[in-house]
Design brief:
Chain lengths: 460, 564
Amino acid sequence: MTLSRRDIVRLAAGSGAAAALAQLGRSASMAQTRAPYRAMVGVFLFGGADGWNMIVPTDDRYAGYAAGRGPQLALAREALKPLAGTPFGLHPSLAPLRPLWDKGSLNVVLNTGVLFQPLDRRLYLSRPDLRPLHLMSHSGQQHVWQGLQARAMNVDGFMGRINDRMDGAPAISPLISVAGSSLALLGQRSSPLVLPPTGSIARHGYDASSRDAVVVARQAGLTAFADADSQGPVTRLTGLGFSRAYDQAFAANAILTRTATVDAYFKDAKGVMLNTDIAAQLLRIARLIEARSALGHARQIFFAGHGSYDTHAGQVDETDNTAGRQANLYAALAAALAAFQKAMEALGVAADVTTFTLSDFGRVYRGNAQAGSDHAWGSNHLVIGGGLAGARIHGRYPDTTFRGPEDSSDDGRWIPSIALEEYLGGVVQRFGVPAADMPYVFPNWASWNGGGRGPVPLFG
Amino acid sequence: MASPSPSILAASALACAAACAGAAALTGANPPEPRFMAPEAVTVAAFSAPDAVRLAKQATFGPTPALIAHMSQVGPAAWLDEQFALAESGYQDIIADRNIPQSYCRSKSGSEAASCKATYWQSTPVAMRFYADAVMRNDQLRQRVALALAELLVVANQDIDSTAGLATYHQLLLDNAFGNYRDLLKAVTLNAYMGDYLDMAGSTKASPNENYARELMQLFSIGEDMLNLDGSLKLDVQGAPIPAYTGSDVHEVARALTGWTCVRFPGASPKDKSRIDYTQRMIRSASDYDADAKSFLGVTVPAQASQSASVDAVVDAVFNHPNVAPYVSKSLIQQLVVSNPTPAYVERVARVFADNGQGVRGSMRSVVRAILLDPEARGDRLAAIEGKVKEPVLLAVALARAIGMTTDGYVFTTRDGVMGQPLWSAPSVFNFYPPDYPLPLGAPLVSPPSKLLTTAADVGRHNLVYDWTVEGDADRKEFKPHTQSATGTKPLWADWEAAAADVEGLMDRVNLLLLGNGMSATQRSAMRGALTAIVNKNATTQARQRAQTALYLAASSPLFQVDR
């Protein structure tokens, strides 16, 4: 395939756009069109979602939960939505996800988070050199969750690095964010497509096929003024980014303006379209999955974002612990995730698409005076996909003794027992990242692969 | 750089009062823009017109012909002195007129409620005033520094229903822009809007809330890691960064900041959440204060110390931390001048922060002067590291100032969100972008505003430029007043219509004003082709359309979108 970017853009403008784009095979191993289609959808819960109220033990550990979180935050046992076959229940606002559990399309990963080395309280306190940097800092931990370097500067992200290895000559990047630019998307060679959750992105006044002399001369001017090659890297690379954005927007716009069959699933019980931001994002992702052939995508990586989950105050309502800010966020999230999964099932790709949550950190077990919780460390996360090896809860609920072996503090900031690499490793291997590329995608992969450690067996 | 004596400052201010009067562009008035001064007419050879354009990009919201003429005349140091004395912008009338209990709008319904909230709760009126002042008022440096501070000491209007409170916060930043950083930290710490935003208001001894305590240290003063004076990381023997504070410091500072609450309107109970007066400083709620001893950052506050003493101890501890000078200096350099300053530049400014030569630590006026008069800001550019992407606010306002607009600010508030920067509504206290966001494909260089350069925002930036230039005639729909009492936006094309009669002169003007004379021969040739292709039998229309196209080509280019 020797089409240049401009050829592709020109083709995309015409009626043969879909056909031309569909022919764009990818050269790298992850992108061969013969391989089964795969997609992964990361939903970043910005602000640090309180996973300790996402899933709660309902057996004899409940007493420790209720005492530890205190009346400020603890959910009543009878309010929880039991996960069949396990001693755990979901936050009541996550009830829309329970059908997914029942059909084996929902997994929970317990107490996962950023680690440099396996740690317990003793080691944590005695060996500062083994701690991840910038623990409990929003920016610091968001960087590690996206860049996967617990004790080094993160200047690119795991999704971008996967995209680096998928690079062919794409008209439209197979790495797409509907939640803005983020470190996760930055590669060392590749650029993501970053779309708004709704709407198209037409470039005003630009028409490559115009024969109007004024427009032709103006557009020749644009080409001359796009050249920043003789400038320093900040200007030059910013100019390159503009050019790539204009090309990608032009190629993508035809697809963004199409209606899609998946729209029908993003409705509430009364048939009204879900109107939350996260629903809009997941709808756009579902549409891009539906349009994967037209986009020429054999694999797709998506980045969505939801929040703010930084619930220092008002996490729960003063009079009702099942209501409040977190409950509202979880309700919006669950409705959107459930709709998305129905859409995937309808498209026949439910087994090929894996949706998973990410977040800055978990929150302190003990509630604070304002019905909220402060920054902590390990947390619980959700994985959704038709290809999961059954309804499972992975990992271990921590010993919730304050100052106990899994507490890094004196009020319940649990040290993760599953490293981020192990959690996300299970997701990206399903996506198709070959073993040889794992150290590039996860720089500390060697620390977490072998010796009794390894990717969470989400898919068996 | 020696500090000028007070008498020189006063004289400069008077000189400006006279010299700037002709260029004054105040709200509601159509400023008479003096005809453009060509480079050869500039008399002070030491400070050329392109030098003035560069300073204007750093220290103002963008060059105008009048500003460049004036800067060229007086030179950078005297211009700074003029600016330090100006205080024209502000929100005082918004604070006075819109301070009512939240319950007022809650009692309304339907469109009445919506209109009530737009007036009394939301950020739009404050953002409109910001944009109008940025486009038109002369105290440009104060406003630029206040914006830099607003992106360092961030509040956002999520969940806080008080336009007057938000205005009070931004007035505080304007008032303290050239003051002392310690005073600023203290004022911010006790500000009610911040108190609610980061949960210091209502934090109690029984269960101290760590939110403000943590971000005060991480974002407002110290940063996460120990720094050298030049802003680089201090490393331990294993080469790892050294945390600047511990979890215990966060907790102890949170304890020291317990027992504060917002003022309520008269007659409301102390816990009433719908009658909070955010225009007043927080007050003590003594029973919630933790009077036991606290230890943080090497300081111990003894038991039974007063609440005020505890707050002062916290503010002093962070203000005197060795990180503050490089942390704040680098942050302001990144906001005003360049995204990747050399360590030597940071150190020169940090030394001034630590001691301005008169024994004063934290003098913002001295720090701003040091930043803008530094050889790295005024001297030869360093090709490998130069450049700072214009964030959306700066892009829109610089374009408006280059065109010559009067505005009530509204149109900007309908544009900034598309470009990723809905003013005063940052997604969190971490601002719209982090200070260490990597330059895409260019790490380890950083480019903080590049966080906002999404595919959609890139197109949005282009469309802003296209719409306001090529499609930017005075009758453009979005320029019309959005309510009956609004005044809308007026582009002043007359001056451009005069300037564009001569294509070469038009290109000279655009090249200087927007690109600091950075246009290449190839670009000039292409621009000439684009301009001469425009032919209209009405000479005025032809001139305007040519000017609009010249502005479009220049302002949409990376040469304008990145300041250097």
